[in-house]
Amino acid sequence: MSSDHIYLDNNATTAIAAEVFEAMRPFLTAEYANPSSVYPFAGPAAAAVRRGREQLAALLGADPEEIIFTSCGSESDNAALRSAVATQGRRRILTTAVEHPAILNTCRSLVEYAGVHVDYLSVDRFGRIDLDEARALITDDTAIVSVMFANNEIGNIYPVAELARLAHAKGALFHTDAVQAIGKIPIDLHGTLADVDFLSLSGHKFHAPKGIGALFRRKFTPFAPYLTGGHQEHGQRAGTENVASIAAMGKAAELAAAHVDEENTRVKALRDRLQKGIVETCPDAIVNGDPDHRLPNTLNVCFKYIEGESILLRLWDLAKICASSGSACTTGSLEPSHVLRALGLDFQALHGSVRFSLSRYNTDADIDTALAVMPGIIRNLRDLSPFGRDN
Ligand code: PLP
Q: What is the pTM (predicted TM-score) of this model?
């Protein structure tokens, strides 16, 4: 994918694959029918929805009937948690301190408006959770346990199969936000993940467009629809299907299955080379996350004594590199991310984090460029920093 910039921010969103764009094109032009219509003109649209469902189910090791199309990962997360609270007759949710806001703010909303109590699993310095703590916190009143498959900021992969078994042992449902895992970790919902009740995903994280997602809901798991209205998705999610984006996500799922090995070999090697190069050439660089169980594409590094935002600006100015920092610029103040705070990092490290996240479209040349500019950027910003090591 040629372009005038180097895109190392694939956990934020991904480029639409050319094949994916071609798969959606007919449904944005000639084949515009509503898939629920009965005349033959609607046949291709209905077939595209069917095929998209089959392609996604195949990627997940699920049955097509277990796939509910949604508008995004956030909607899927909302649907799973709110359904569990509505159907289980239990008043507690167990989740972690490092979930995406789609989970954390949904939990807060359920505390405020549905009177539930939320327990949070803590994490250690490497972002790891403790299964014994989970065992102790799942009670007979836990409606659902929700733990992400992989973390968007530090890339940690969590032991969802074990957690799902623990949840079921106490009669609780289990949900996982797999938005960052798709295409990077093989997923088998009828195999190793047989205890997972709900799984959320989002098309724009694996080379499909924004605004399309899905919720896996295991057959017979109780479900109260989040969006009510028409009969679409067998009454589980109202709203005329986004046919073009469903066709796109189906194609993206097929490509993800074909490229998952490449993610764990070539892409991982690029990430490892970037990590090694940065650690060797930039003093006081600390790699965040679990060294042993991390997404193959993600590298989160803290550069003590400097602001992550300043590094991002220089990366763009010097080499047109796109990356992310661990601070969210909200209402003008730079708040360190809740994930990095949960790791217990000190102030100097919290503010100086950068996340590089790769995809199969990255090349050796991208990493060469990043490694060529990083040492100078760090040296230069440290020289200017009021927190500099020598000050
Ligand atoms: N969950 C995780 C782990 C994510 O990384 C994201 C997006 O960044 C979401 C949920 C939300 O997905 P969407 O943007 O499709 O609502």
A: 0.96
